[in-house]
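Hi all, long-time lurker, first post. I run a small reading group and we've been trying to get comfortable going from sequence to structure in the token notation. Rather than ask abstract questions, I figured I'd post a concrete chain and ask someone more experienced to write out its structure so we can walk through it together at our next meeting. Sequence below, copied exactly:
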Amino acid sequence: MMRSIGFAAVALCLALSSCANIKTAYDAVTTSTVPAQTINVAINGFNIVKTAATGYIAYCTPNPTPAGCDDDAIQNKIMPAIDSGTTARNTLKSFLREHPGSLGDKGTYDALVTASSTLQTLLATYDKR
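-- Answer (accepted) --
Happy to help. Here is the structure in token form:
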């Protein structure tokens, strides 16, 4: 009888420690932060790729559209990536302005990096100037 209580106690401790590890992992993922310098580099990188993307859009704007332009890609892929990246950039810039030197939100940072990466891929695919 004592032995089964001991096994139950050990099993309960293992189960609780597993739950604690899962909670610790969840907290780490949901509350991750990024240093201000890293955010500034990502902001500058996004600004550069956004400039290239808006240049491609300006190049493709004349009517008739120059060869190599894809209006569907501009409307459905490039513009949404610019919009989401601009929103993330502005959110991070505002945060850094209000909290100089503080750590920024990793989720917003990831959104900015994803938008930059998406724009780079789309420009490599569609911009044949």
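A couple of things your group might point at:
The chain has two domains: 1-31, 33-126.
The CA atoms of residues 34 and 104 lie 5 Å apart.
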